[in-house]
Amino acid sequence: MSQDESWWRVCSRGLYSCNWKQSSVKKRKHACCWFSVLALVSLLSLCWMYVCLVTLNDQDDVNWQGFAKLKRWVNWFMVLIIISAAITSYCVLLLLFALFQFALGEPLDLHWLHKILLFLGVIFIAFGVAGISLEWRQEWPTVPLSLQATAPFLQFGAVGALILLSPFVFRGFDAAKGNWSRFLIAVVFVAVSAAIFLCPLSIQSPCLIEMSKLPEKPKLIGHRGAPMLAPENTMMSFNRSITCGVTTFETDVQLSEDRVPFLMHDHKAEFLRRTTNVKEKFPDKQFTDSNNVTWKELQSLNAGEWFIKTDPFGSVSMLSAEDKRRARRQTIPSLLQLLDLAKQNNISVMFDLYSPDVENDTEDTVSTILSSGIDPSLIRWLPPEKREYVNTAAPGFIQVYNNIKDMLNQTGDHLNMKYSKLSIKQISDLRNRSIEVNLWVVNERWLFSLLWCAGASSVTTNSCHILKDMTEPDWVMAPHTYKVIWVTVDVASFIMMIGIYIFQRKTKCFCQREENQRETTLAWNEKELSPFLPTV
Q: What's the burial of 90, exposed, middle or buried (CB within 10 Å: 0-12/13-18/19+)?
């Protein structure tokens, strides 16, 4: 290997173009076009990876939809994350090799295999975007919401990337042939730089506040208990949520054939299939809803083994051997069991009522609650059906609404909505009107931090064991402090890029002078020695 053929030059050329030896052949056509395609696909893959990471909060929804269609419980979202991470890593590394190629003066000759893999990556991302748009469109509002938590730091990262890429842009500008090419490079670079430098003017975040104005930490509501630490909607799950300091149990109620209210989320075609061993216990029966199964039959089912086998949140490894044994023994609890636990610990209960017979089930559920002896003020009544009857039969229940219009029409002051259905401004405005705002389901720290800054009263969560330990949001910054940091970073980066350009210009001029001197010396030597050289 020659001195010029250093190992990093050979590796960069080999990995990018699969050409391990220096070629005397000129660049193939469209090499720059393929470099542009690579840059665009890399940017696209980074954006897609960002979407996957911010929607990780709702991975359970994706897995549930996968189960509803395929009748098999798999952590489909984690599969999506792994594939997306592999595509993004591949594209970014390939782009880095391309930049090394350019810096080392090697031809940008992208191998055909890389072209095929880039095309497959684009196809995968396109299917992912289409899947969200068609089956999970309610998740798109999470992306702009997440920018209120991440935009300041994304801007700092973009400024850093701009500095790192500027030497390559400046070299391309100097190497460009023709004034129009240089003009186009300059205009694009200046426009992108201006957009990155000035984008903080449009960044708004509730966490850009003085620490003294930070609202109270939102209270925690256990979503079906603590489903990351125990099988959902079991007594073990609700007991684990108590250790997290939850103020409310959130659950789902259905009524059996013999009119016993019990806890179970899945209904319709998925009833009992995901979280119990109903197929093994009753292979010859088909339970389509709660009205065709008795309480005795329900009690005979195991409601915990599935949790250990499928590990829906990747959290089973956190459990002790004793906790795993206890989880495997869990059964379906009745509503009365949960009410007794809530009464003993002074914890509120809020639930959805899934039922094919709404009228009778509402009455029987209210009757069960009143007969339990629990303080009526601990019941947060969420089902909208027969609300007038509930108000009459149990005036002490706190009425909770799932939309602003119904709440205002009935002069309510408790709201329960998906976190992406309300804007940050709406949350703040509602809280200023002394309305309790609960948002579901909030599992990630960044989202909890953002809603904390916005002033949410409480959040329904699967990860109460994580959120309970947060003493403040992940970040809070005074607006004046952020402005100083933003301007300082922009000015420093601008000065650095000017310095890089000047250095490159001087280096280029120095190299040109050295080359001219060598050519002059060679010409002079040839002229002086020509009389003594033999003629051919």
A: middle
Alpha helix segments (H runs only) across 206-334: 235-243, 278-281, 295-299, 305-310, 321-328
First to last CA, the chain: 35
CA nearest 157: which of 12, 36, 50?
50
Q: Per residue in 211-256, pLDDT tens?
A: 999 999 999 999 999 999 999 999 999 999 999 999 999 999 999 9
Give the whole-angstrom CA distance, residue 430 versus residue 420: 15
Beta bridge partners of 262: 254, 334
User: Residue 75 CB: number of other CB atoms within 10 A?
Assistant: 19
Structural tokens at position 20: 């391990």
d(CA 141, CA 474): 21
Distances (CA, A) of 10 to 19, 92, 103, 530: 8, 19, 13, 40
Tokens standing for 367? 């009757």
Query: Residue 357: what pLDDT?
Result: 80
517 is written with which tokens?
A: 């001197």
Angle, nearest 10°, between helix axes 335-345 and 358-372?
A: 40
Output the six-digit token pair for 80. Answer: 């999506």
Q: For residues 501 and 495, what is the distance between their CA atoms, to the nearest angstrom?
A: 10
Task: Give the global pTM.
Answer: 0.89
Closest CA to 92 of 41, 140, 53: 41
What pLDDT, in 10s, does the model give residues 344-394? 999 999 999 998 787 789 999 999 999 999 999 999 999 998 999 999 999
Looking at the DSSP bridge assignments, the partners of residue 398 are: 380
Determine what percent of the chain is predicted with pLDDT higher than 70: 89
Residue reference for tokens 């002790």: 320
The answer to whether the CB of 12 falls within 8 A of the CB of 101 is yes
What are 2-55's pLDDT values in tens digits?
445 566 566 666 666 766 565 544 445 567 788 889 999 999 999 999 999 999
- Give the closest residue to 331 by CA, choosing from 365, 297, 354, 361: 297
* Tokens 């396109």, residue located: 126
pLDDT at 11: 67
pLDDT score at 7: 60
Name which of 9, 6, 3 is nearest 100 in CA terms.
9
